[in-house]
Amino acid sequence: xTSLTSSLIAHHKLxxxxxxxxxxxxxxxxxxxxxxxxxxxxxxxxxHFATEEQVLFPVFEKATGxxxxxxxxxxxxxxxxxxxxxxxxxxxxxxxxxQFAGAGETLLIFMQQHNMKEENILxxxxxxxxxxxxxxxxxxxxxxxxGVRCVIDGRDLLPPEPLExxxxxxxxxxxxxxxxxxxxxxxxxxxxxxxxxxxxxxESVLGDGTHEIHIRKA
Length: 218
Ligand SMILES: [Fe+2]
Ligand SMILES: [Fe+2]
What we know:
There is one protein chain. The protein is α+β, with helices and mostly antiparallel strands. The protein folds into two domains: about 1-130, Four Helix Bundle (Hemerythrin (Met), subunit A) (Up-down Bundle); about 140-215, 2-Layer Sandwich (Translation Initiation Factor IF3). The chain is built from six helices and four strands, in the order ααααβαβαββ. It has a four-stranded mixed sheet. Strand 1 (about 150-155), helix 5 (about 160-170) and strand 2 form a beta-alpha-beta unit. Helix 1 (about 1-25) runs antiparallel to helix 4 (about 95-140), helix 2 runs parallel beside helix 4 and helix 3 packs antiparallel against helix 4. The structure holds fe (ii) ion (FE2) (2 copies). One fe (ii) ion (FE2) binds near residues 12, 48, 52 and 118.
């Protein structure tokens, strides 16, 4: 699956470029050019969603037995993006720049967050799902309570990226799963968010100063 997930990551960038072409054409008042770019963008992103929904996600679901977890979140987000692209197509047909830009801006933010969750959390889980996730369920000691364990190494990342990645990961973490966050500091703002949202965590400090925070649903 590794070559599939790396192709999907490259394809995210291709789709981002096609979206940008449609947006630039709309802002330039070139509505026919915008229609062509939007059509191409839609074709590519539909093919991308289909690959994930019909090929990639079933592998994860089969290996983990989890169908109402992260892949359900991703499928729901695909539908929300489909609706936003539909809104953009309507706005393009009506040459309504304000409406086009509004839907486009929402889609762009949505798409960035969705892709970040996939690239940092779900794709690595899918790459591991054939062995690690199943192994975790069979050897609870590796991830107490069973389930998927994912790791975010935030030691070389600048704030607020570790916090954003952690929240995105928790959004798609299956029930019983554990998230391990590694940082060179104690993330106090994160602790407040975790407490408010029903998560528990354990902390330890390694010899090199790495704080390891093991997070799971209470
Ligand atoms: Fe997706
Ligand atoms: Fe994707």
